[in-house]
Amino acid sequence: VQLQASGGGLVQPGGSLTLSCAASGFIFDWSAIGWFRQAPGKEREGVSCISRRESNTYYSDSVKGRFTISRDNAKNTVDLQMDNLKPEDTAVYYCSTGPPTWEYWGQGTQVTVSS
User: Fold this and answer.
1) Per-residue pLDDT averaged across 70-86, rounded?
2) Are 13 and 58 in contact (CB under 8 A)?
3) Residue 103: partners with Cβ closer than 8 Å, 6 or more residues away
4) Which of 21, 68, 78, 90 has a CA-to-CA distance to 54 between 20 and 30 Å?
């Protein structure tokens, strides 16, 4: 199982970024995919996840209405569109699969929201 997160960077408050998770080594369209983040000195937290057929999505209260998760089963990718970013969104973002324990992780991508 391989998961590769990309798309992070430095953005000003109110700006947008799109993270992408590229997956391989498993049957992608059978698997839910989740996005998590970890800020310095804080525990990792769940941000969003999407079921295998896009019928169900989840957002944490802190990102609801600002982030949108989507998946392309033909390309084995899951995107996280992040709008109206806030400084408190600064963290390393990870994608994961293998719920409910979220067994598999990719390396993270840094998102920094700062003026």
Assistant:
1) 95
2) no
3) 96, 97
4) 90
pLDDT in tens, 32-44: 999 999 999 999 9
Q: What is the DSSP letter of 109?
A: E
**Residues found in the chain:** 115
CA 45 – CA 57 distance, rounded (Å): 16
Backbone φ and ψ of 41, nearest 5°:
80, 5
What was the pLDDT predicted at 92? 98
In terms of Cβ atoms closer than 10 Å to its own Cβ (0-12, 13-18, 19+), residue 12 is: exposed
**CA separation, residue 79 to residues 17, 38, 41, 71, 89 (Å):** 10, 18, 26, 6, 16
- Cα–Cα distance, 9 to 70 (Å, whole number): 20
**Structure confidence at residue 101 as a pLDDT band (50, 70, 90):** confident
Alpha-carbon distances, residue 32 vs 10, 65, 111 (angstroms): 28, 21, 23
